[in-house]
Structures are given as C-alpha cells and as structure tokens.
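ok so I'm stuck.
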Amino acid sequence: MGKAIRYFHDQWPGMEEFLKDGRYDRDNNLIEDEIRLSVCSSGSLSKNNRITDNLL
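replied:
not stuck anymore, here's the structure
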C-alpha cells in the first residue's frame, strides 16, 4: 500500500498540470481508433490474432 501511495504522491504534480492545460484531451479513443485502423488495414491482423498482439 505504501508503494501505491508514494507513486500517487509522486505523480500528482504532473497530473495537476495535465488537468490545468486545456490543450490535451483526457480521452484517448481517437488515438486508439487510429492505431486500430492502421493495424487492420495493414493486413497484419489475422482471424486468430488480437489487435494488441500485433502492437507488441
């Protein structure tokens, strides 16, 4: 539990800046959709593979 609290505490200043800055969207669905389209259209996605397998 101590590691989790320390991690949260260390990340908080960056999170505050992220939330204050209106240039960044908090939703990454657009990026995920672009990646998915890129993987699917490249022909590297077979019937038995998941998209995440091809990104690794």
